[in-house]
Amino acid sequence: MGNTKSSALSKELLEELKSNTKYSEAELCTWYQSFLKECPSGRISKQQFESIYASFFPDADPTEYARHVFRSFDTNADGTLDFKEYIVALHLTSGGKTLQKLEWAFALYDVDGNGTISKNEIQEIVRSIFNMIPVDDQKNLPEDENTPEKRAEKIWTFFGKKENDKITEGEFIRGVMENKDILRLIQYDEPQKIKDKLKEKKQ
Description:
Blueprint: H1 11-20, H2 25-38, E1 43-45, H3 46-56, H4 63-73, E2 80-82, H5 83-94, H6 98-109, E3 116-117, H7 119-130, H8 135-138, H9 148-158, E4 167-168, H10 169-178, H11 180-186, H12 192-202
Helix pairs in contact: 3-4, 4-6, 6-10, 7-9, 10-11
């Protein structure tokens, strides 16, 4: 074998990631090598994460959204992502089972981490999503969701909440599972170029 822990994934972690994500052993090992190349310390900082996101969106500003995504995956709140957190982030933002994705989406929208979502939090995340949509594409959005305010209002109205109400995780997941339109409104669909870029990195 001869590989040290620093350049090879431990068998336990490999097995855990294989069973919890859609990635194969070969893909995970390739990801790990490129992860170590970019982050020799084995951890990725918020700034590095933001710059990786920025390279995916040359025509928009993903900084704010990347910051929220980073926060939602930094499960131990130490200001860095290790390889496991990074792979889980990739898996959930580009695939993942519906329930897992919705639990993550709830964590993304629960900006202050208090276990409920307020209207302000919905507005904050929706605004950060809009920053990633090129201006030309924003012009093609339906009239009732072509600004962050309108989209946030549409989501809030769907949940039947008053201005100062809160949405619990159970309500959020149930509501989104029952209405595909809301699922579309709360998420940012990766443009094809991100998927292509991820494929390139795997090769």
